[in-house]
Amino acid sequence: xxxxxxxxxxxxxxxxxxxxxxxxxxxxxxxxxxxxxxxxxxxxxxxxxxxxxxxxxxxxxxxxxxxxxxxxxxxxxxxxxxxxxxxxxxxxxxxxxxxxxxxxxxxxxxxxxxxxxxxxxxxxxxxxxxxxxxxxxxxxxxxxxxxxxxxxxxxxxxxxxxxxxxxxxxxxxxxxxxxxxxxxxxxxxxxxxxxxxxxxxxxxxxxxxxxxxxxxxxxxxxxxxxxxxxxxxxxxxxxxxxxxxxxxxxxxxxxxxxxxxxxxxxxxxxxxxxxxxxxxxxxxxxxxxxxxxxxxxxxxxxxxxxxxx
Length: 309
What we know:
The chain has helices at 35-45, 51-54, 60-65, 99-109, 130-143, 160-167, 185-188, 194-207, 225-237, 264-277, 294-301, 303-308; strands at residues 49-50, 70-73, 77-78, 88-89, 114-119, 148-152, 173-175, 212-219, 242-247, 281-284.
């Protein structure tokens, strides 16, 4: 295993202004025909939210056109106010206990082979909304047998009890994104905690050694390459199996600025470094997001789905 990279503290006062023009390799495909319209119809019919829309994902039309979407549970108002995120934040309403049923029904209607389900943070609840995840996992497996379920969960403030509720429902992939390097947590996600993210990923493997664990990073927020490699090294020591790395794209002028655009060669360098540490799968490119090629990952790495395919 490679040596642990050194870390230098990021000084926000020294961060430069946002680059004015996107480079040519940042090109977002938009195709609103075909399956896109059908997916949109199903989601609206079930009164569901997707992180694709709420977070303005650049791959939305590509994924929806392929008949996949990342469902957003626990409503559409987050209790945290991360400076990179376009999801609404504030005081959320009551939990919608019918949401898992409607989501599972949509997974069945879309005839998905792999479903990604994430959520806003619900820090006002001790369980962080974990029971909603568990209900969805169980019901989706009932209604759509053979469909792998990936849950992209909050850190639940490091609560093992909340995490166990999710893990007991047997998700096929347990995903939790650290999002950025620890040196930038105070600026990017001040209500989150690097140690809570570590606890979430480490404890997931302890609770279910067979689950695939996954995490992701954004780059271009002011971190150095060495800091990114430091976090990649951390994730591998936490026994994470799958890694995604993508370019941060500023949702609006009110959000945290883009400090710089990484070149595709740099993404390739990070991919090679991560693979050298022993990750089973790495997606690293400018427009990569957490759910990009998610179905391919689980079917390549999970013995359960290798047998079924």
